[in-house]
Write a structure and sequence with these properties.
Order of helices and strands: EHHEEEHEHEE
Number of domains: 1
Helix content: 25-40%
Bound molecules: coenzyme A
CATH topology: Aminopeptidase
Number of helices: 4
Strand content: 25-35%
CATH class: Alpha Beta
Largest sheet: 7 strands, mixed
Radius of gyration: 15 Å
CATH superfamily: Gcn5-related N-acetyltransferase (GNAT)
């Protein structure tokens, strides 16, 4: 349920430090991105970043990298105080729509096998486990690789 208004807008360079802090607060030490990693992903070819604003501040963001074959979700972050207000879903749907408009056939991502909120969100949006990547986030920290087709079935589902 959406309990307060938010809006989505494209990333601006002046958002960098805020997004870095949001990511640090969303993931444990060692999994959250360093400044170097964040800059690397934001500048990589095909990178797209959308920011959600609520109450005049950044509430979350999604960062993807796109090729002709797939759009890879690098991260989806919503500040704890703004969770369960549909912001993560709105960011995800906007990223999917942007990829679909460009004819990209599928979305791909990795998510920790222990990250129950994220897995619930991905599944709600039609993502399916494609495989497990052992030690993806470090020793003993496995990830599911998840995919979603952006191609519509003939029935329009
Ligand atoms: C995962 C995350 C992005 C979800 O953001 P959000 O804005 O709270 O998500 P939404 O409000 O759009 O939730 C959509 C659905 O996801 C599921 N979901 C989200 N959080 C959940 C939780 N804590 N427990 C169970 N299901 C959850 C629910 O099905 C929810 O629908 P509902 O609220 O109608 O039940 C947010 O919890 C987050 O930033 N977590 C830390 C970073 C992270 O793990 N990112 C994803 C991996 S890259």
């Amino acid at each position: 349920m959406e309990s307060s208004a938010f809006r989505l807008r494209p990333y601006q360079n002046s958002d960098f430090e805020t997004l870095f802090r949001v990511d640090q607060s969303c993931f444990p030490r060692g999994i959250a991105y360093s400044r170097w990693q964040m800059k690397f992903y934001l500048r990589s070819e095909g990178a797209r970043c959308l920011v959600a604003e609520a109450d005049g501040e950044v509430a979350g963001f999604i960062l993807t990298e796109q090729t002709a074959e797939f759009a890879h979700i690098i991260t989806l972050d919503v500040l704890e105080s703004y969770r369960r207000r549909n912001i993560g879903s709105a960011l995800l749907q906007a990223a999917e729509q942007a990829a679909a408009r460009l004819g990209v056939p599928r979305m791909v991502l990795e998510t920790a096998t222990t990250n129950k909120p994220a897995i619930a969100l991905w599944k709600k949006h039609g993502y399916r486990e494609f495989g497990t990547i052992a030690d993806y986030y470090g020793p003993g920290l496995d990830a599911y690789e998840m995919h979603k087709s952006l191609r519509h079935s003939p029935e329009g589902n």
